[in-house]
Amino acid sequence: MSTRRRVLALARKDWHELARNPQAIAPLIVVPLLLVVLLPAGVILFGANPALTSTVTGLQSFLDHLPEGMLPAGLDPSQTIVYAVVVYFLAPLFLVIPVMVASVTAASSFVGEKERRTVEGLLYTPLTDRELVFGKVLAAMLPAVGIAWASFLVYAVLVNVLGGPLLGGIFFPTWTWAIIVVLLVPLVAFLATALIVMVSGRATTMQGAQGIAVLVVLPVVAIVVGQATGLLLFDVGIALAAAAVLALLDLAVFGFVVRSVSRERIVTRL
Fold first, then answer.
1. Where exactly are the structural domains of the chain?
2. d(Cα 197, Cα 147) in Å, to the nearest integer?
3. Rg of the chain's alpha carbons, rounded to an integer?
4. What is the 3-state secondary structure (H, E, C) of 161-210?
5. Can you tell which superkingdom this protein's organism belongs to (predicted)?
């Protein structure tokens, strides 16, 4: 069997295990629903209500510090809120989706095999350590990217259907969002997955393995805080810079994970 077939066989096995776990599936539905349906729909439908800006943490500060020239000319206050939130404010928050999905799927990799008492059989397969790690990363990364891309399609249709009449036509997506979806989502998903797989090889519970996802979420939180305080705006330049940094991090982290995950260490922690 070729390397590609061995890796895909391992990934398919993990997908079948994930599909049989309702506790893992639930957050994969709830979080995207909140970020790409409920939150943008609320902003578009109630954008003119002052209670909205006081309810969403950091939104009023973000609107106050939004640089001039970032919005189309001639928008009234309600249109300004809708455009600014849909195009800019929610952009970095969207990256929470692949991180969250990866944290759920990747945490069940090695540690999930331990809990199901199937890890010993896995470790004695013909897979090399690199193939074993790549198969586990792939099994968690692909659902994370797929759910994020599906969420983006739902988000794009929703904001254009609800917000288009208010803003005079289709206004989404923008180039920043194109970079987020095409580049940042796979890169963030890979990084989160690789880190969690590494921890999963050492952890004894899935909750402990999922804790490493916080390290990937922190930069996203930093961007949100930066937007709210006016220090930076998540635009095309920031998105491209983030993609370049993440690509380098992905390569470095994957190499480190392959070196750190060994059959002997996993067996001794059973």
1. 3-268
2. 19
3. 20
4. HHHHHHHCCCCCCCHHHHHHHHHHHHHHHHHHHHHHHHHHCCCCCHHHHH
5. Bacteria
